[in-house]
Amino acid sequence: MNNVDLSTQIAGVALDSYIMNASGPKCTNLEELTVIGESNSAAIMTKSCTIAPREGNPLPRYQDLPLGSIQSMGLPNLGYKAYLEMIPALKQHGKPVVVSISGFSVEDNIEMVSAFQQSDVDLIEVNFSCPNIVGKAQVAYDFEQTEKSLAAITALGDKPIGIKLAPYFDMSHFIAMANILKRYPVKFITCINSIGNTLVIDPITEQPIIKPKGGFGGLCGEYIKPIGLANVRAFRQLLDDDIQIIGVGGISNGVDAFEYLLAGADAVQVATCFEKQGPNCFQRIEAELALFMANKGYDCLADAKGRLKPL
Ligand code: RRO
């Protein structure tokens, strides 16, 4: 290949490369997580879990779109205890294991974070931004609730905690969320979750294309890359360096990953592209990123990280 060093770290946890899977696609059971373990993904990231196992929303709940996908999965998962039990097997792949938790209440999140604090998991990503549960608002859009949850879950142990954020679209929201994050020992944020409650209509059938919530679902893939880049950039400018940022949203090639690097991401996650192309995407995107950076004369991620040039 070439000599560009793509190694990075999140909260002191070393990653061999810049690119890992995102919570969401194909990371719900041991078989799927083993495929990720055997791939070039820099870490093994689990599907968001809840206290009890869930079947998720009614089908069809996922549809490919030309530039991405729309989905309303509804948190199908095996329940957090199953992921706790899987950790020793997952650790055997010799790469960090990141668990995603998504409780329905502060109490749920306290129970799950406490349990994973006692485990061998490397990082805990707390999902404040699932858009697809009927009757449940996204915590990340409720700043009071966000603060209450952060106060509770960051006081439960020393393992690094990160927060999966919803996309924001207004400068006042970036500032409000950054000011809350600064008050707690949050080690990283993951930006962004899907754009919630979008609607795709099939004009032939005159119906929505997914079943749950009357067709409203999270928009993913290339459509959302400019929003992901803006969220990473805005938070990088507003937060101090002690909170790292994982970028996610529309990364399907090495140049996409490089754009997130310029915006300030310390690592990136791949969701829809992994869903559509399978586990070889991690190696391909890594090779493309290394080649693109080598052609620019860069040796490592730090040469370009956060260095978006003014126009
Ligand atoms: O399972 C889902 O429906 C889902 C989750 Br938990 C999330 O965080 N984001 C998303 O787009 N879908």
From TrEMBL:
Subcellular location: Cytoplasm
Protein name from the UniProt record: Dihydroorotate dehydrogenase
Gene3D superfamilies given in the database record: Aldolase class I, Dihydroorotate Dehydrogenase A, chain A, domain 2
Catalytic residues, chain numbering: 130
Cofactor: binding details: Binds 1 FMN per subunit.
InterPro entries: Aldolase_TIM, DHO_dehydrogenase, DHOD_1A, Dihydro_DH_chainA_dom2, Dihydroorotate_DH_1, Dihydroorotate_DH_1_2, Dihydroorotate_DH_cat, Dihydroorotate_DH_CS
Family assignment from sequence similarity: Belongs to the dihydroorotate dehydrogenase family. Type 1 subfamily.
Function comment: Catalyzes the conversion of dihydroorotate to orotate.
Lineage, top ranks: Bacteria, Pseudomonadati, Pseudomonadota, Gammaproteobacteria, Alteromonadales
Obligatory cofactor(s): FMN
Catalytic activity: (S)-dihydroorotate + A = orotate + AH2; (S)-dihydroorotate + fumarate = orotate + succinate
Subunit-structure text: Homodimer.
EC number(s) on file: 1.3.-.-
Organism expressing this protein natively: Shewanella intestini
GO molecular function terms noted in the UniProt entry: dihydroorotate dehydrogenase (fumarate) activity
Enzyme class label: oxidoreductase
Gene from which the chain derives: pyrD
Sequence positions that bind FMN: 23, 47-48, 127, 164, 192, 221, 249-250, 271-272
